[in-house]
Amino acid sequence: MEGAPGAVPDRPESRLPEGTLHGAALIEGLMTWTAAADSAVNAALQRDANTSWEACASELAPVLGQFKEMLGGEDVTLFCAKRIIRRTWEYLSKVHASLHAEALALCVAAMGGPDSLGARRICSELTSFWVQINSEAKLNRDVAEALIRKGLLLLPEVDAYLAKLLLQTRTQALGDFAVLLARAVKDGLAGYADVSMSLELLGKLSAAAGSNEAILQLLNAARQSSRARAALRAGLPDLAGLKDKQDPPGFHQQVEGGLRSASLGSRCCGIALRWA
Hints:
The structure is a single chain. Helix content is 64%, strand content 1%. It has helices at 23-47, 53-70, 74-88, 94-110, 117-132, 141-149, 155-168, 172-186, 196-209, 213-234, 237-240, 251-258; strands spanning 263-264, 267-268.
C-alpha cells in the first residue's frame, strides 16, 4: 500500500443521471454543497482541532439537510453517493469522517433502507473503492469507525481482504485495523462471522507472539458478545446470560501499555485498543 497518505483511486466512475436535477445542475449543486460542508467542518476544527462529531452535529445538521434535498431517484442518489465516496478518505478528521458517513447513510435511506438493492449497490461501491485505495489511508481508524457504525462497509469483503494482507505483511496499521474489527464485534456493531478470518488470524499471531494476552481477552469477549446476541435473537435465555460485560477497570490501559512493544509474528506491532 504505497503512496501518499491520502492517495485514493479515481473511481468509482460517476455517470451523470437523467432526472429532474441532472447534468450540470446536479454537479453545480454538489459543488456548492461541498464548499458549504468544508467551510462548516473547517470552522468547527479551527475552534477545536480535536472536536468530536457529537460536539458539532447540531451545527452541521443544516449542511446534511441541504444534501438530503438533492437526493431523488435511484440514479441521482447513486451519483451523489459516489461523489461522497470519492471524498471519504481524502479528509481524515473525525468530523469529516462522520459527515461523510452521515451523508452516505442518507443515500442509503433514500434508496429504500439498508436492505434495499440500491443500498447494497452503495455499500458495494464503497467497499470496492476502499479495497483499491493504494495507501494506509484505507486503514484510518476514524473513517473506519464512522462507516462501521453506519453499517456501510461490506465486512465479509473487508475481512477477506484484510486477512490476505495480514498473511502477506504485518504492520502496526494492519494490526490496529484488525483490533478495531474485534472491538466492533464486541460492541455489537458487527457479527463475529462477518470478520472471522481476520480475527482468527489475529488470535493465532497474538498467541504465537506470547505477549498479547489483552488481545486474546478481547477476541474472547468478541466471541462471547456475538454468541450472546445470536442467543437473544434465537430466544435462548440461558445462552443470553453470556451477554457482554463491561471491560474491567484498566483494561484499555493494559492493552495500550502491554502491547506497545508486542509483535505480530516477527514484526514489531504496537497495537492500541480504543473504540472512540
